[in-house]
Design a protein that fits this description.
Helices cover 74% and strands 0% of the residues. It is an all-alpha fold. It starts with a helix and ends in a 13-residue tail after the last helix.
Length: 131
């Protein structure tokens, strides 16, 4: 199965979101609690997003489970800064941006996995709309 460029790009953006969420607390000098919570969540999200990217590269389609788990961790990264009292706006914004990238694009890959399972034969091989 030939994967679309958008699906491949989605896996890459999800990994980039993990990187942003991982670096933000370290670069912005966050307190140990938020730093540990966000960086560990970003690492675990990167494991699932990376598995998804590897599967796309190897099999030509994403894995549903990896996409869903990365989406859940991305949603947690969106909410995580709101759980702590002393989090600055820069840390909140960058962590939530990374979480949104991870959640949105991983959710897309999970939907692509469902389409592949259901046998969506109407989808073109590329996202341009031309056969």
């Amino acid at each position: 199965m030939q994967t679309s460029r958008f699906t491949t790009a989605s896996a890459a953006v999800a990994l980039l979101g993990c990187l942003v969420a991982f670096v933000a607390p370290l670069a912005l000098g966050a307190s140990p609690g938020i730093r540990g919570s966000v960086t560990l969540s970003a690492v675990v999200g990167a494991v699932f997003a990376g598995k998804n990217a590897q599967t796309i590269r190897d099999r030509g389609r994403p894995r549903f489970a990896a996409g869903v788990m990365a989406t859940v961790l991305g949603a947690w990264l969106i909410v995580a800064p709101l759980q702590y009292e002393a989090v600055g706006p820069a840390l909140t914004a960058t962590t939530q941006f990374g979480g949104m990238c991870l959640a949105a694009f991983s959710a897309y890959t999970a939907l692509v996995a469902i389409e592949g399972y259901l046998g969506d034969t109407d989808a073109p091989g590329d996202d341009t709309g031309y056969a």
